[in-house]
Amino acid sequence: MERTFSMIKPEAVINKVSGKIITAIEEHGLKIIAQKMLQLSKEQACCFYAAHRDKAFFNELINNITAGPVIVQVLSGDNAVEDYRSLMGAANPASAEEGSLRKLYGISIEKNAVHGSDCAQTAEREIAFFFNQLEIMS
Length: 138
What we know:
It contains seven helices and four strands. Helix content is 40%, strand content 19%. Strands 2-3-1-4 form a four-stranded antiparallel sheet. The protein has one domain: Nucleoside diphosphate kinase-like domain (Alpha-Beta Plaits). The chain has helices at 10-14, 18-27, 42-48, 58-65, 80-88, 101-105, 120-130, and strands at residues 2-8, 31-38, 70-77, 114-116. It is globular. The chain has 138 residues and is an alpha+beta fold.
């Protein structure tokens, strides 16, 4: 079984659609094996998104992700990374596939409701950033 990382972003938590997103994840066949809600500090957000530090959208990204609580999760499934990316849809909700999480719950490309790992190696790093092994069910 493959693992991937999921983050339900502040706009989705604030707009009270996180339960719908969690239900969609489970109905899509992915198993939630760890989950918690937290508020990222600017320092934590900068560390998490360090790969984007030199990009023009970095400051807006940090401001958006620290605007409220997030729900972080570890998902498990046969092709968890690919399956979750498919469920999320394109980064821009306006061009995301019908029925995808970002189409349904995203506000803009900057506030697109969910984040998911882009590959297995990124998933390992992102999971380790938020969870220790005792917090992850096998």
